[in-house]
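Notebook entry, structure prediction.
Reason for the run: the old model in the group folder had no record of what sequence produced it. Starting over properly, with the input documented here first.
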Amino acid sequence: MYRRKLGEDDHVKDDIIQAYRTDHHQGNYIYRDMKTDVWEAGYRVPFFVSWPGRIEAKQQSKSTITHTDIYSTLMNVTGFRTIRGRTEDSISFMNTLIGHSITIRPPVVNHSANGTFALRDGEWKLVFSSGSGGCQRPKGKPFHGGLGLFNLDTDPSEIKNVVDNYPERVKAMTAQLAAIRGKN
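New structure, fully documented this time:
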């Protein structure tokens, strides 16, 4: 059995090592915090599809999809029509699967345990609180204490809040969330 001595390397320093230190553990890779929080570690989940002869093996996509998109995608694959008025939150990502294009979808709303919202629009994410909204401190309160704007392409760990650098983006995304929530 492998036993680690205090101070030895761990999985964070070398991904070949199968040991970890509780004070240094990164169970969510580079993504911030956990499932109850509004941060990416609570929302980024790998999605795997296999369809020999139809979907090329080992391809990757940066498309944002959600579990609701599975419905429209399956309807697209089977040739059935989606039911009007029941699938507004579902976008087929079939073209992405077969390598034709990246799925462009309307913004996605993330929601934490305490009701904190974040809006994900492409590479941008706007958090409507000064905290995680879940277990991690500061927890913050929904729509109270500030905003956080992050470019997930350049800052997937959501470390650098660029809210002051992009006032027009903040204004547009705030309006988008208000429209989604019916508060416009």
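Summary: Helices lie at 69-78, 94-97, 167-181.
The old model has been moved to the deprecated folder.
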